[in-house]
C-alpha cells in the first residue's frame, strides 16, 4: 500500500526516443511509446517544457503517487541534458528517476527492471549517466532483440518494428507501462518479482 509520504514524492519518468514523425515507429522509440500510453491513462497532453522536453504532470490513479512523464526533444544521444534539466527543475533525486528505453540484449517483448548499472552501449543512457553524474537511477528495459544476421545494431534500432512484432506491440507497450506504474507504487523488488517471472 502506498503511504501518504510516498504519494507526495514526485517521480520523473523519462521515455527515450528520437523526435519527429519519421522515427515514431522505430524500435529506438519504445520509451516514447510507453510514456505516450501512460499520458493517455492520466488523461494528460504533453506540453513543451523549457528543459527541451515535452512533459505531462499527474498522479497514478486517484490520490496516487505524483509523476512527471517526459519525452526529451533532443535526439537520443543527447537525452541527458533534458533529463538533468528536469531533475533540477523539479528537484527530484536520481533514485526517483525512471528511464524507459529499448534494449538490444533482451528478447523482443521481455521487460527487465533495475537500479543503476552500465549503459550497455546505449547512447541515451550514456548521455543521461554523464549528465546526472550518477548511474543510480531506475531503468525499465524494453527488449527489442538482436538484429538478424550481420545487420548493424544502429540501423536495426532505427527501423520500425516488423509486421510480426507489431501484432503484439500494443500488448508489450501496455505491459511496460504497467511495470513502470508498479515500480513507482510497489518498489523495485516487488515489480521485478512480477515482471521478471514471466
TrEMBL record:
Protein name (Swiss-Prot/TrEMBL): Peptidyl-tRNA hydrolase
SUPFAM superfamilies noted in UniProt: Peptidyl-tRNA hydrolase-like
Keywords: Cytoplasm, Hydrolase, RNA-binding, tRNA-binding
PROSITE patterns membership: PEPT_TRNA_HYDROL_1 (PS01195), PEPT_TRNA_HYDROL_2 (PS01196)
Family recorded in the similarity comment: Belongs to the PTH family.
Cellular compartments annotated: Cytoplasm
Record's signal peptide: none
GO MF annotation, one: hydrolase activity
Enzyme Commission number, as recorded: 3.1.1.29
Residue numbers marked as site, Stabilizes the basic form of H active site to accept a proton: 102
Gene field: pth_1
Phylogenetic lineage: Bacteria, Bacillati, Actinomycetota, Actinomycetes, Catenulisporales
Primary role: Catalyzes the release of premature peptidyl moieties from peptidyl-tRNA molecules trapped in stalled 50S ribosomal subunits, and thus maintains levels of free tRNAs and 50S ribosomes. Hydrolyzes ribosome-free peptidyl-tRNAs (with 1 or more amino acids incorporated), which drop off the ribosome during protein synthesis, or as a result of ribosome stalling.
Top EC class of this enzyme: hydrolase
Main location: cytoplasm
Pfam families: Pept_tRNA_hydro
Residues annotated as catalytic: 28
Reaction it catalyzes: an N-acyl-L-alpha-aminoacyl-tRNA + H2O = an N-acyl-L-amino acid + a tRNA + H(+)
Site (Discriminates between blocked and unblocked aminoacyl-tRNA): 18
Assembly behavior: Monomer.
Chain residues that bind tRNA: 23, 75, 77, 123
